Amino acid sequence: MQPKAFIHTFGCQMNEHDSGRMKEVLEAEGYALTADKEEASLILLNTCSVRENPENKVYSHLGQLRHLKKASPELVIGVGGCVAQQEGEAILKREKAVDMVFGPDNYMRLPEMLERVREGERVLMTKWMPRDKKIQNFIPEEWVERGHVEGCKAYIAITKGCDNFCTFCVVPFTRGREVSREPDNILREARDLVNRGAREIWLLGQNVNSYQAGEWDFCALLDAVSEIDGLPRIRFTSPHPNDWNDRLSDLMAARPNICNHLHLPFQAGSDRLLHLMNRRHTVEEFLAKVRYMRSINPELELTTDLIVGFPTETEEDFEGTLRVLEEAEFSQIFPFKYSPRPKTKAAKHFADDVPRRVKEDRLARVIALQERINAERVARYVGTVQEVLIDSANPKQRGAMNGRTDGHRPVTVMDGSLEIGDLALVRITSASGHWLTGEPVEQAIPAMC
Predict the structure, then answer these.
(1) CB atoms within 10 A of CB 368
(2) What is the pTM assigned to this prediction?
(3) What is the Cα gyration radius of the chain?
(4) Nearest Cα to 183, choosing from 148, 221, 210?
(5) Regions of the chain with pLDDT less than 70
(6) Is 306 helix (H, G, I), strand (E, B) or coil?
């Protein structure tokens, strides 16, 4: 019988991309992918350690898999990704059901790991690939044209790792130092994905706009991708405010297929805290870039990350964060209570001195303010016509499909004749929370136009 593999992905879009690449490697080895872990002969957890809670979820999930291993001793369980890189051998010691642990640099070596497991070994593979050059085609040439298209969307990693060393962030320790792919390598993958049905491509990197490959910077690469025939939508994540510039803002406003959606993390509304975080920008510098973008592109939807309760955060510091929310008018925020991460400067040198109840109160205040801001922004959509890329069937309503606006707002479209990959012009009839509902106003642009 054909062996089956189940992959559970935690965390960011980069992890989603890595899981897609794992699927390609496993399919080349003869595996079929399954959504039912009960029937799998291989279970992989692709993990995230940016926050403490996702890390705890991994260990909880491993505990739930023990009964499957007990019932089927031949079942292979692997832990990959950032928690694997961070914890390494500790996972093998703590969870006897785990057969292999591997970091983000090693997923292309899955066949070798599986062979070693079959020979009776418990495998640990967390060594970094050589990073002696800043330009590195970490997707091997023979795998460039095997990129994964999920429905109508695809991801392309253009950089990996990070050199910023923000004091709260574990990414440089779990993903390594930053390297960029050669532009031809990236563009070839993008063209192949479009030829295989991708209608929307995400360019990915821990700090995507620090991309540098010889004379190519991120603006040049983004411009080149926008010129690929048959690609109606391009997104990217996540840029760093310190590397954002007006050239990029101008390019987004000028190219209709670069979506009006930007995730730009500001983290804190206090220059003192930003300095302690090693963010290398000020509140005013961040807001000046936002003001310019809004002035040339009023339809832009901004999202962001922020931390409450960073060491030494005062009420005055926190009120600065609220002021940034008021001015920037983000469409969505991803707020987190500070938690110390292993190996980071903040964990080593700063006492976690903001009481938990204060963190929780500040988080609640941030969420309440953002809910008001979002309600005001989302109400503006009612009565407008939006271009929506259909990406799935609505799981609860028959005769309805789901999609996203150019600004990444989720929409339920009341027309069951639409297909995944269609671009539909939709009149928005109502809004609830973050979700919009609408009806097509004319025939959709077919998926394979």
Answers:
(1) 9
(2) 0.90
(3) 22
(4) 221
(5) 54, 443-449
(6) strand
What domains lie within the chain, and their CATH numbers?
4-125 (3.40.50.12160), 141-377 (3.80.30.20), 385-440 (2.40.50)
Over the chain, what is the mean pLDDT?
93
Residue found by looking up tokens 């004749």 in the block? 417
Q: What is the DSSP letter of 146?
A: G
Rounded Cα distance between 267 and 258, Å, is 25
Cβ 102 vs Cβ 125: under 8 Å: yes
Instruction: State how far the Cα of 352 lies from the Cα of 118, in Å rounded to an integer.
Output: 45
Residue in the structure block whose two tokens are 């929409």: 411
What are the start-end ranges of the E strands in 121-275?
123-125, 149-150, 153-157, 159-160, 179-180, 200-204, 212-213, 216-217, 233-237, 261-263
DSSP string, 379-422: HTTTT-EEEEEEEEE-SSSTT-EEEEETT--EEEES-TT--TT-
Residue 48's pLDDT is what? 86
DSSP state of 310: -
**What are the distances in angstroms from CA 211 to CA 54, 145, 343?**
28, 21, 25
Per-residue pLDDT, 444? 54
Please spell the DSSP secondary structure of 340-389, one letter per residue: --TT-HHHHHS---S-HHHHHHHHHHHHHHHHHHHHHHHHTTTT-EEEEE
The 10 Å Cβ neighbour count of residue 56 is 11
Q: Which of 386, 384, 376 is nearest to 406 (CA)?
A: 386
The DSSP bridge pattern shows strands 76-81 and 233-237 to be unpaired
Contact assessment for residue 78 and residue 31, using Cβ atoms and an 8 Å cutoff = no
Note the pLDDT of residue 242: 95
Provide the CA 421 distance to its chain's centre, in angstroms: 21
Which CA distances in Å does 216 have to 161, 386, 418?
18, 34, 39
- Paired with 216 in beta bridges are 213
- DSSP H/E element including 102: strand 100-102
Q: Which helix (H) or strand (E) holds 303?
A: strand 301-308
Amino acid at the residue 226: S
Long-range contacts formed by 390-393: CB under 8 A, 24+ apart: 390/152, 390/418, 390/419, 390/420, 390/421, 390/422, 390/423, 390/424, 390/444, 391/151, 391/152, 391/153, 391/420, 392/151, 392/420, 393/420
Cα–Cα distance measured from residue 255 to residue 348, given in angstroms and rounded to the nearest whole number: 44
Distance, in Å, from the CA atom of 47 to the CA atom of 45, rounded to the nearest integer, reads 6
Residue with tokens 């009964």: 67
Its sign, for the CA torsion 76, 80, 85, 87, is negative
